[in-house]
Amino acid sequence: MTTRYKVMPGPEHFLPPSAASMGNSLPDPGQGHIHGSIVPEEQAMEEAAKQFLAAKVPTIFPGPLVLWAWNEKAAKKAKAIRHLFETLKDCVASTQTPMLIPMPDYRPKYPKINPEIEINPNHPNLTIWHNKIDACIFVGVHCHQANLSLKIIRGGTDCYTIAMCAQAGHEDAMLSVRDTTADKILRLADWVKKLKGTVEPPK
Amino acid sequence: MATQSVIGQKNNKGQTFTDPRYMMHEAERTPSFFTGSEVIKEAIRRASCDVMIAYPITPQSEAAALIGELFAEGYIGDYFRGESEFAVMSQCAGAAFGGARVFTTTAGPGTMRAMENFPMWAGARLPIQMIVTCRGINSPLSIQPDTLEISYLMQTGMLVWHAETAQDFYDWILKGYMVSEEPDVHLPLALCCDGFFVTHTKDMVDLTPVDMCLPPYDPYRSPVPCMDMECPPVRMMRDPFVMKSNYISYATHASWQQEVWAAVERSRKHSIAWLDGLIDTENTDAEILLLASGTAVSQGREAIEILADEGIRVGLVKVKTLRPWPGEEIIEATKNAKHIIVPEFNVTGWLAREVKATIPNNERVHAGPHVCGGMTMPPEIIASEIKTLLGIKVQTLSARGS
Lengths: 203, 402
Known about the structure:
heterodimer, A: Rossmann fold, seven-stranded mixed beta sheet, 7 strands, B: Rossmann fold, Rossmann fold, five-stranded mixed beta sheet, 14 helices, 19% strand
């Protein structure tokens, strides 16, 4: 299944449309999407790993659903995310700088947020590490806040956005998988390890 | 999922939490002769609602009172009367913010009085279900059927469905929770019917087994956190970014609104699955099509029969959901039609306007007949309007009954 509207790295527009309003659909279980086209989940996972291995600053943004110990599943996911980050660090070249920047809550922070420490979901294009991040993964972010941030990032930056969603996925990311569990996060780490050395790192 | 884990368990009334697809599509049904208000009660008996908040206004008062009986019987977690419709809808928001499955009913001026809450519900992604038993909203006062209030609800970001019959009503109350509670949707639903015509008339309705009920709402699937005013991650309620005057604050608010309407779009897939399509059609190869929602569909069916007896073939499009709007379905269903007749129970013709904005060659749309303020719409009126449109001479209706 394809869509006419491609969700691509920006900067796209002063106020980009939501992908759903352009007719993009969410994947069904077992599927993911790349740029709005529905693909088998494993294909999306492989592409996510490639994008991360090709980025100068591949960054994981874990959200409140995994940063706070709501339940055992959240704690398990947090450990899997840490494993993904460590795997990434092991697999990239010295020219790459993997980052792990938490999004612990959704409060707008005034007068300013420290972009060295955390992402502000309401100011993402201004506050993600001085806009130097060229690929990111959202994981454990509530769907509504994730969609807002993903769309604003697409509007104002050229960052490649990936969303690992515990629910139905995100059309406003350039790539998304759904029903994310700790095992699925570990599988992405396996893809990163498997593709190590096969993707040309940035110069 | 918590929702899945309770399937097969019993609630404190002995009802079994049942897979909704089995309950709605496969379980044996019992034909029953009920008013629309009684049907609302029977649906809510099986809906595992946590909270119902009530306020009297005709013609929904009876349903609200009947659900009070359900509370007395122990089928609902909490039930109380608000101070006004505005208060009711605010209290519904509070209950939904806290993670409850919420139900309420309203009508006419009550809907209008509470209107400020509806975009707030949608913006806060609260999957509250509100029955709207439509009636007149303007001065001079009328308690009679009139669907004008629906046109206001259509711009709020809520899902808006328009039931034709008591059977629609029964099924859609239960299915409505399944659609509006999907995490990619998670929006309030205004389930509308034409007051009195549906609420106060009796009809045969096939009910699902009384010992089965929906699984409870699972707030952990919400796309936004449950509200806690003091603790992260939700303290933004008292740190609203909208209070700041800068580009990114405005952009965030704009994106927020877009996300609400994106969720309406996402409901399309789920609504199609649960309602078996956003529209129903009959004989869309006919050159004349009657397109309607609510009880105007029922009147249209009778008009189609009258015209068939006279050798005039007319097809039918029944619009079930107004939000999401079935644009592509209507374009497809009307592609062969030379004349599209849109009868409505309101003065402005909002449905005809929506159709005109949707289809190519919209001069084919004939907005009418219209009645409002409680007038009935006899099928003969619709048949007569169609014949006039076709250039066929008709008798004046003032001669009827003489």
